[in-house]
Amino acid sequence: MTILVADIGGTNTRVALVKEDATAPHSVARFRNAEFPSLEAVLDRYLTDLGRPLCTAACVAVAGPVRNGVGRMTNLAWEMDSERLCAATGAAHGYVINDLEAQGHALENVATRCLMGKPMPQETDETRLVVGLGTGFNAAPVHAGEGAQYTVVPSECGHISLPVWDETSMALAMELAAVHEFASVEEALSGRGLMAVHAHVAGDAAWATTVELIAALQEPEVRDVDRDTMRLFCQLLGRVLGDLALVHLPFGGIYLIGGLARAVSPFFVEGTLPEAFADKGRFREFMADFSLYLVEDDYAALTGCARYVGRQI
């Protein structure tokens, strides 16, 4: 059995093939979404470059809600359903799932690093929480079922209200609301969100991209406003993660995924993320029951797609 798997983010699409019962993808290719009019065009280019291999099944993970089998991107005007996926790939079976759902199915097969708390067994019956930090922001709880079955509950929690706890966070929220009509988590905790926080704190455009800002933070001499930017970003992230932990009770761990998560993770301690996470009054000690991990595999969603197909057919 050959499975075509794809992870469609807001900026890039990763496509690969998975053979037989393997979970590790091969023939991985990456495409910039801005260069293609649709997902079908991406898949056509990929399969053509490989000589049109026969696919038994196809599964794509989309960064957006999936409803009635139709996946709609949150930050991209693309849409996909199983029928169109099968037509595009020639596969007999087609599946469209949320990208966080794919990440949830991959947790037992990808490398992770414990950032905070006590390491947990990779296989656990406890609820886990996958949090995506990249072009957008989202989170999804992963509930263990019988055997090797898992239920990954979709959500769009990147669009909940941004937490406010002092004058600094209030000023940021009001500034974001003035621009977007609503201060959501995603407008602060994403790639563009980090730059919005930087513009608010620094009041300048010294850095045009997150890559430039993060590189500047690694230099021997760091501007105070850049350090303050990352501190506010980490405090926001810590409080949001703390809120989500109390909502979902992920005693199996919280798993950060995405390129931005990996880029900002070295600043968590200096940015006081652990303190912000635990700042829940009389529940402070209770918050120590939740561990925080970083998923280091950039292709984890592809592995999750393959695992999902294996659980369906």
UniProtKB/TrEMBL annotation:
CDD domains: ASKHA_NBD_GLK. It holds the Pfam family Glucokinase. It comes from the Bacteria. Keywords: Kinase, Transferase. Belongs to the bacterial glucokinase family. PANTHER family: GLUCOKINASE (PTHR47690). This is Glucokinase. It comes from Meridianimarinicoccus marinus.
